[in-house]
Amino acid sequence: MKQWVFAAIAAIGIGAAADAAEFKPAVVFDMGGKFDKSFNEGVYEGAERFAKESGIKYLEFEVTNETQREQAIRRMARKGANPILGVGFAQGPAIEKIAKEYPDTSFAIIDSVVDVPNVQSIVFNEHEGSFLVGVLAAKASETGKLGFVGGMDIPLIRRFACGYVGGAQWANKDVEVLQNMTGSTPAAWNDPTKGAELARSQFDRGADVVFAAAGSTGLGVLQAAEDAGKKAIGVDSNQNYLHPGTMLTSMLKRVDIAAYNVFKSAKAGELKPGINVLGLGENGVGWALDEHNKDMITDEMKAAVAKAEAGIKSGEIKVHDYMADNTCPY
Amino acid sequence: MADTYLLILLTLDATLRVATPLILAAMAGLFSERSGVIDIGLEGKMLAAAFAAAATAAVTGSAWAGLGMGISVSIGLALLHGFACITHRGDQVISGVAINVVAAGLTIVLGIAWFHQGGRTPTLDASARFTEHALPFADAARSIPVIGPLYAEVISGHNILVYLALAVVPLTWWVVYRTRFGLRLRAVGENPAAVDTAGISVTGLRYSALVIAGTLCGIAGTYLSTAHSAAFVRDMTAGKGYMALAAMIFGKWKPVPTLFACLLFGFLDAMAVRLQGVELPVIGIFPVQLLQALPYILTVVLLAGFIGKAIAPKASGTPYVKERT
Questions:
Q1: All domains of chain B, ordered by start, with CATH?
Q2: Who's near B141: CB < 8 A, 6+ residues apart?
Q3: Out of A214, A325, B186, B213, which could bridge A218 as a Cys pair, Cβ 3.0 to 4.6 Å?
Q4: What's the complex ipTM?
């Protein structure tokens, strides 16, 4: 009898040890949700691709209110998940705190810089991608007025706005950009009715192309554009398919590639801490061209955007980064 | 000058769109509170109706089926509220809060289970929504000075639920002040014992008031998810139920003043959208957060007794006990 018990305990012990060694990636989505058709969904696609290719399941959690972030990340760490990927700037402080508590676990965070030795911070040059869609918007506009609807009023979203204005004015220096932010709390990522109202107010003032960088709120903006027969530009994921015919393009932020790379490099044991900047040169940002919008993009627009792209890559065009000095010179 | 006039008209146009759910929900609250039942659950009923309407419209492709389902679900919740605090004489505020919490959670859970889009319902096609109608001669009238643009921009070009909401206000006034039912309704909210002595069922009256409230909240919720936007998203009512309650108190539990309170709150919201980031002479960039907080500030100021006096129906909040032993 005693032997049985010992054997059982030993078996459990071995089992636990094997468990700990197992590769267990985790991702903590942020408010807006896994299926926001935008930022979080991009991460989800990247994680799914990794899961499909490697056959390894990942742990996930969707944060639905601000107090859950830290708990969710800590619970992942306690469960032995490694690496843990945090999605969104708002998880920065939570990741920083828990990364210090669990120095042997690797963390990665998208859209924020966390200076702890076991965290990889992935940031995108959103201003470069926004510059490109700004060029397209200016070329597509007939009224010479463009709209921008941001989500929560934070420097990151101002960076989108600033790059967009820069691109629009590079293509046509007389262009005017109307800017609105949805709110100053995280609820601003999830308010499509307000987004639609903001877009309509911009259309009323003469804008005919609107760029939405607002998570789920943006869905209302894109819908309003379809209802009013105006053009809209999506963000983060390719949103062209949502409203074919009125979606001019989408500014891509390849969070899917970022998420995939985090998991893949971690599996190979090569997840490097530090700051990982994904810009135009790394194909981290760009603009979407597919069967849904190919009829709306003229050859002239393609040529203009290609010129801008080449200019940014060669350093000839300097796109101002709002977050560098919190001002926008355009 | 013409531009400024057009800008004002467009703001008024947005005011109507934003105020519609407030008007409907405030009238719902008015019926309920006039009968002596506090209705904190306006928010939850709207939210549940918004979800039910969007889900039904997405599956059937019919906005009217969505409206029917939205109203049914909202009435169901209203009856639940009635069962808890009329039949069983529970605390009305607690029951209302419970409805809000249940609606907030259940819509997301069911949404995830049915549509797998993180609590969102699929985006509706134009055919499954209440779309905007231009009234006759709207384009022709545009050329008439002053009145023409007013007609074309503000009065014409809304969806049918907006017009319905505006029609509900005089109807509410007529029912509450000019019908036998209305007289009894007001009496049961002030002195239920007197109504009972006259041989009229207090329970029956309060239940019918709640059913009316449920219907109106159902329309309000349907408007949010199938007319104003094209899908349900979590917590899409975003406090409009509480805002409606504030408007009802601001309007002193009377239909017409309540309408104006709703329009004022809607106007402030529309102004906040339009003034954002706009440089004004003298003031500079206007703090729109102030405009957004103004409805609540005004209500508090009113309740503190600075603008007239807001007196709630006397029996509001107390369950009626037929016999004391």
A1: 2-303 (1.10.3470)
A2: B147, B148, B151, B152
A3: A214
A4: 0.76
Shortest alpha-carbon distance between residue B291 and chain A (Å) = 13
Model's pTM, two decimal places? 0.81
User: How far apart are alpha carbons A74 and B1 in whole angstroms?
Assistant: 60
The nearest CA of chain A is from the CA of B253 a distance in Å of 28
Q: Residue B296 burial (CB < 10 Å; 0-12/13-18/19+)?
A: middle
Q: Do A127 and A321 form a contact (C-beta atoms < 8 A)?
A: yes
Q: Is B233 on the interface with A (CB under 8 A)?
A: yes
CATH, domain range A126-252+285-325: 3.40.50.2300
Residue range A2-125+256-278, CATH number: 3.40.50.2300
List, for residues B220-274, the tens digit of each pLDDT value: 999 999 998 888 988 888 888 998 999 998 898 999 999 999 999 999 888 888 7
Q: Which residue has the tokens 């406090």?
A: B239
Closest of A187, A180, A265, A236 to residue B278, by C-alpha: A180
Please state whether A88 falls in left (phi above 0), alpha (psi between -120 and 50) or beta. left
Strands B284-285 and B279-280: antiparallel
What is the rounded CA–CA span in Å between residue A195 and residue A150? Answer: 9
Chain A residues with CB under 8 Å of B108 CB are 64
User: Which residue's structure tokens are 């159902």?
Assistant: B218
